[in-house]
Amino acid sequence: MADSGRLHTPQQALDSLSNGLEPLPLEWVALEAAGDRVLAQTLHARHDTPPFDNSSMDGYALRAGDSGKVLPVSQRIMAGQQSAPLEEGTCARIFTGAPLPEGADSVIMQEQVETRDEGVFIPAGLEVGNSVRLRGREITTDDVLVRQGSRLNSAALGFLAGQGFDRVPVYRKPRVALLFTGDELKLPGEPLAPGQIYNGNRFMLLDLLPRFGAEISLVEQVPDTLEDMTQALARASRQVDVIVTTGGVSVGDADYVRRALESLGELDLWRLSIRPGKPLALGHIDQCRFVGLAGNPVSSFVGAWLFLRPLMGGLQGCEAMQALPEVSARAAFSTETAGRDHYMRVTLHWEGDGYRAVAFEDQDSSILRSCVNANALAVIGAHSQVTPGDSIRCLLLVS
User: Fold this and answer.
1) What is the DSSP code (8-state) at residue 307?
2) What confidence tens digit (pLDDT) does each residue in 14-64 have?
3) Which residue range or ranges hold the MoaB/Mog domain (predicted)?
4) Cys bridge to 126: 67, 270, 317, 361, which one at CB 3.0-4.6 A?
5) Quick one: DSSP state of residue 193?
6) Which domain holds residue 101?
7) Same domain, yes or no, for 167 and 179?
8) Which residues contact 356 (CB under 8 A, 6 or more apart)?
């Protein structure tokens, strides 16, 4: 059971999340469905790229030693065509990507030649290899194409397609259950009774988690009772890899999530020394991991980036997702912190010689508007004072 009397650091929370964490099993998917998936095996080149010497532009293929002469055109070579050996004392009309004919060692672009009745005049001084892309220039057979643990972006997909891969091995997406607690929460479009609010966390997390590579398998609004929450956690733990809740992990009379978790599994860590997001709860029910985010929308937003992103990355074997990238910036604001680290929502602007961090004026954990244009979190240590121009550490919000 977690020590409920102390506040933990974000690093201790990350350590708790990574304890015993292993990537999920691999699965093979069609290349067109592999965007942003994490590669589960290192893939090697099946052939040289390019697979043959070819022209890098439209022009004429020839022997460089024949430059300075008028050469008859002996053949025309289009991309995708097989060329014949180049006849002595001739050139070949060639187009971008077409194979260089045997005997040719250079290409001159069409704008640099003069057309004559007897052929084309090639200016003198042409060098061997001019405008030729040699076989294997990009990669050779058996070289590493993309390494295990890489997240497949559009360029990687094109690279693999160029090697003939139509299916690739990737780690299975983490299956996530989203459980929302709070009888005051309603869905947009429903009428609000006095004291009720719309559930913004639901739609924020439904967007964020897939960006982190998760598959949302279950979404449920759970009534504010210990029995209902216990039953919901038990059902979800049998279906998914991770349960994420918002609200109900503080110390109020209706905060049943922690008690329900402890009745079914283990609470590994509770409460962080950060602002916002102090009431974070981490635990597990058998093999299913549990992350309880605070109900305040900014706390859920910050907690998702700080803890759900690395957890999803670990389950997918992606080291690059284990920590948010950092930059230094000059503060464009003043602030003073008390006994907890403050993760301020800021917008970074590049000013030629570095980043300038502009903070939303109201940094209260209930003000989700502070996150709308934020592209970074400024990490201000406990008992710190920041004035405009001070260098601060910022975590980039990139999925």
Assistant:
1) I
2) 999 999 999 999 999 999 999 999 999 999 999 999 999 999 999 999 999
3) 177-314
4) 67
5) P
6) 54-133
7) no
8) 329, 330, 332, 348, 349, 350
pTM of the model: 0.90
CB 98 within 8 Å of CB 83:
yes
- Is residue 140 in a domain? no
Q: Which of 106, 133, 160 is the last residue of a domain?
A: 133
Of 133, 153, 185, which closes a domain?
A: 133
Within the chain, residue ranges assigned H as helices are 10-18, 154-161, 200-211, 226-237, 257-264, 297-303, 309-315, 369-372
How many Å apart are CA 91 and CA 71, to the nearest integer?
6
pLDDT at residue 86 tops 80:
yes
Query: What is the pLDDT, as a whole number, of residue 249?
Result: 73
Residue 30 token pair? 């069609």
Sequence-distant (≥ 6) Cβ neighbours of residue 141 within 8 angstroms: 45, 46, 47, 48
Same domain, 343 and 375: yes
Tokens 């710190």 -> residue = 384
| Span of 131-140, 221-230, 245-254, 314-323 with lowest mean pLDDT | 245-254
Under DSSP, the state recorded for 308 is I
- Counting the structural domains of the chain, the total is 4
Name which of 131, 83, 92 is nearest 108 in CA terms. Answer: 131
Q: Are residues 164 and 258 in the same domain?
A: no
Looking at residue 389, what is its pLDDT?
Answer: 97
